[in-house]
Design goal:
heterodimer; A: 113 residues; mainly beta; seven-stranded mixed beta sheet; four-stranded antiparallel beta sheet; 11 strands; B: 110 residues; six-stranded mixed beta sheet; five-stranded antiparallel beta sheet
Chain lengths: 113, 110
Amino acid sequence: DAGITQSPRHKVTETGTPVTLRCHQTENHRYMYWYRQDPGHGLRLIHYSYGVKDTDKGEVSDGYSVSRSKTEDFLLTLESATSSQTSVYFCAISVASGIYEQFFGPGTRLTVL
Amino acid sequence: QKEVEQNSGPLSVPEGAIASLNCTYSDRGSQSFFWYRQYSGKSPELIMSIYSNGDKEDGRFTAQLNKASQYVSLLIRDSQPSDSATYLCAVWRTGNQFYFGTGTSLTVIP
């Protein structure tokens, strides 16, 4: 399972509240990613990180921020949650083994009421 | 144009048959190609990686890559009901970004 955990696994919150999702990995991988998955859209990249304090935006970054102060933790924050951010959020890491392969955490189901 | 396109399905095959899943990609700079299996309510699981033209086999799975046609396929031989899932095609190119298709739903009928 590539040693990836996500917390919380499920969360229900109200519009306008801040939300932070945590991704934790145990194998010191350099690259970490946050995706959201919605019906009809597949997996869409929100932000990714290529090292401590090094992050960049993905395809759907508006309304989201990230931080990575330690190699093992990558945090995704919704500053003011909206109903359009109701989704399943996956964290992933990529491993270089000849080619880069990506492995996913178990996911967080977020509902914004 | 989408980076990665897949037929959404659903695709239904009888148990024991060959399931064929297809994917096309738009950027000729794509270098590595992947198939993921995703069961309902679960996270994507990597089942095949390929980066050279031709076929790559792993058990009942065969990935096929044709870079000239920008086409990747996955064949599942002797399909089992446990293969019923959504299959995601993904590509990687320099910059360490992965691009995913929306997935093809496969049902294997006992």
